[in-house]
Design brief:
Elements lengths: L1 H20 L9 H14 L3 E7 L7 E6 L4 E6 L6 H12 L10 E8 L6 E6 L3 E2 L4 E12 L3 E8 L6 E7 L3 E9 L4 H8 L6 E9 L6 E15 L19
Antiparallel strand pairs: 1-12, 2-5, 3-4, 4-12, 5-11, 6-11, 7-10, 7-12, 8-9, 8-11
């Protein structure tokens, strides 16, 4: 009986330790393949729109809105991803209505972790970025990290509604990574969009350090924040959203 109790205690300890590490959700290493799927979907169905929210080339001012650190700085740095997937997606963006896309800089965030269990940050554009009419079904963001145990989420805002936040996962990878995340809106937000009166805006990024994050300075880079917008919603107001492409894996 004592041996069973020891084994049970040990297994419980392992499980709690794994949860503290907050391992990232499964990542598809074939980033180029994901870009090619996106390209095929846009070519096959004109109802889908690839919307570039921010290319982080320095035209739009950003601020830390809520921060727990004495160090919180942003700037546009000459550091961008150089993978085939990034280059192919940049080419796709140029073909999708952004011929002047430069991709010369990315968005550098620098801050300091003092209390890993509690520290959090919110970064906002000076003004919310209004999305085109339609249903946002998927988001894409390129992120550079150095193995930080920091969770990233993205906020959307809409009149007559509470702000919505979507989890992009934990940034405990090294190098540039393409984060692709599904957007599922509550029914009340869907109805507001379908009324053609209350579109959605991109509002903010949120960062939250985990208990396993080391104290000290850290930095991240963001680039090419995009949304896939499904415009077919307005073909038949009040109908359910057809999100078949967003479910492809």
């Amino acid at each position: 009986m004592q041996n069973i109790k020891k084994i049970t205690f040990f297994l419980g300890f392992l499980l709690s330790f794994a949860s503290l590490l907050s391992l990232p959700r499964p990542h598809d290493p074939d980033e180029l393949g994901r870009v090619q799927i996106l390209k095929s979907a846009l070519a096959m169905d004109t109802h889908y729109l690839l919307y570039l929210v921010e290319d982080f080339e320095g035209e739009r001012p950003w601020d830390f809105y809520r921060v727990d650190s004495f160090l919180a700085e942003t700037q546009f740095a000459a550091s961008v991803a150089k993978s085939d997937a990034f280059l192919e997606e940049s080419k796709l963006l140029k073909e999708s209505g952004y011929p002047n896309l430069q991709n010369q800089t990315s968005f550098l965030l620098q801050s300091y972790v003092e209390n890993p269990r509690l520290d959090h940050w919110e970064i906002r554009p000076k003004e919310p970025v209004l999305l085109p009419l339609g249903m946002p079904i998927q988001g894409i963001l390129w992120v550079y990290s150095e193995g930080h145990h920091i969770n990233l989420s993205m906020g959307l805002s809409q009149k007559k509604s509470k702000d919505l936040y979507f989890d992009l996962g934990t940034l405990n990878f090294v190098g540039w990574r393409r984060l692709e995340f599904k957007i599922t809106l509550p029914k009340e937000n869907t109805r507001l969009i379908q009324s053609m009166s209350f579109p959605i805006s991109f509002a903010s990024f949120r960062l939250k350090s985990l208990a396993s994050q080391k104290k000290g300075e850290f930095h991240l880079y963001f680039d090419n924040l995009c949304f896939v917008i499904d415009k077919r919603t307005f073909s038949y107001p009040g109908a359910e959203v057809n999100d078949t492409w967003g479910n492809k894996r």
